[in-house]
Amino acid sequence: MTILNVLRYPDERLRTVAAEVTDINDDTRKIITDMFATMYEENGVGLAATQVNIHQRIVVIDVSEDKENPLVFINPVITAQNDELMINEEGCLSVPGCYAKVDRHTQVTVSAFDQDGKPFSLDADELLAICVQHELDHLKGVLFVDYLSPLKRQRIKTKFEKEAKANARVY
Ligand code: NI
Question: Alpha-carbon distance 103 to 150, whole Å?
Fold first, then answer.
């Protein structure tokens, strides 16, 4: 089990569009194990492979209180969503310490494959629905800050660029 390095906004690699997984094998399962370890370590409820610089359509989620309900989504697709929106405060492991209100569909149906290559479909609402939409965006190179006003986004970008520079001087 390896804790992977999480890319931080505004790293351009977060803009990579992930490729379909064509073969679900032991390498895929190793990635998934490492992604869960990384997500739990960082106290996140979801992680997309894009965030750990692996550009394959893989997402892991666990929105349970006790970190006991790990969900794996390989090649996930939202097949249905309702028209109703909810506004929620979101954060992201790639934009640490930043929280902002984002509109999301209150319910989505997602189809995907699990770690054994078995297809499944899941109806998600509440926190899980938000998380699914947030993580699937990552696979398209989209971040939640993209939904904010240009001014707000610029402020966040400047802050993170400054921090990246400061970190770069630490040896
Ligand atoms: Ni995120």
Answer: 16
What would the two tokens of residue 65 be?
A: 């209180």
Within 8 A by CB and 6+ apart from 77, the residues are 110, 111, 112
Cβ 36 vs Cβ 123: under 8 Å: no
The Å distance, Cα 134 to ligand 1 centre, comes to 6
DSSP track, 34-83: HHHHHHHHTT-SEEEGGGGT--BSEEEE--STTS---EEEEEEEEEEE-S
Annotated active-site residue 135? The verdict is yes
Ligand 1: centre distance to CA 97 (Å):
12
Span from the CA of 118 to the centroid of ligand 1 (angstroms)? 25
CA quadruple 102, 43, 46, 70: dihedral sign: negative
Q: Token pair for residue 1?
A: 């089990």
Q: What is the pLDDT of residues 107-150, one digit of tens each?
A: 999 999 999 999 999 999 999 999 999 999 999 999 999 999 99
pTM of the model: 0.95
Contact predicate 137/110, CB 8 Å: no
Among candidate residues 41, 84, 135, 163, the one labeled active-site is 135
Angular region, 43: left φ>0, alpha ψ -120 to 50, beta rest: left
